[in-house]
Amino acid sequence: MATSSSSSAARCRRRVVLLRQPSREVEYEPPMRYCYHRMVASRWTAWTDGNPGRRFYGCPYYYQDGGCGFFAWHDNEFDERANTVIKELLDNIDKLYDENCLLRRVEHGHRLGEEVDSIQSDLRKLRRRHELYDRELRKAEKKFKVAMSLLFVTWVWLCVVYLKM
Ligand SMILES: [Zn+2]
Fold first, then answer.
1. How many structural domains comprise the chain?
2. Does residue 78 belong to any structural domain of this protein?
3. Interior CA angle at 101 toward 7 and 107, to 5°?
4. How many angstroms is it from 54 CA to the middle of ligand 1?
5. Where is each GRF-type domain found (predicted)?
6. Residue 36 burial (CB < 10 Å; 0-12/13-18/19+)?
7. pLDDT value at residue 3
8. Where in the sequence is the domain holding 42, given as residue range(s)?
9. Angle formed by the axes of helices 2-20 and 80-164, to 10°?
């Protein structure tokens, strides 16, 4: 149980990490920048602790293997205050994601609980029906025994009558 909850938290955390991966713009306002491959350089957004949200130009293959190594900042360096605020906001996003994950798990648990209640209620109904059928069966068995006894008595009586004739 602890393993599954920690793995789903990790799943949610990975989503946040994905959000922070450098976003890539291939179209942007001129002047266009070109990498050493002579391709239009993509404009990326850095999410490192030192430069959260700061945009830069890089080879289209920058995040594969560095590409041709072309790199140039688009935004000027943010001041310390802006970096602190952005980092705090990102931390808040992480916290909200974690809370959201937790709430989803709790809601899922509630739904499972409701399903279990419904199944238990069905089970109780089935048990009642089973008891009813069982009672009917026992009554029928009793009637059958009485009928067989009557048949036997009648047969014996017929035998006696036949032997007297
Ligand atoms: Zn390149």
1. 1
2. yes
3. 110
4. 20
5. 35-77
6. exposed
7. 43
8. 2-123
9. 140
pLDDT tens for residues 96-122?
Answer: 888 999 999 999 999 999 999 999 999
Query: Is the per-residue pLDDT at 71 higher than 50?
Result: yes
CA atoms within 13 A on the CB side of 90: 20
Give residue 35 CA to ligand 1 midpoint distance, Å: 4
Residue (of 10, 60, 61, 64) closest to 40 by Cα position: 60
Ligand 1 center to 58 CA (angstroms): 7
Ligand 1 center from residue 23 Cα (angstroms): 17
Residue 141 counted as domain residue: no
In a domain, 50, yes or no: yes
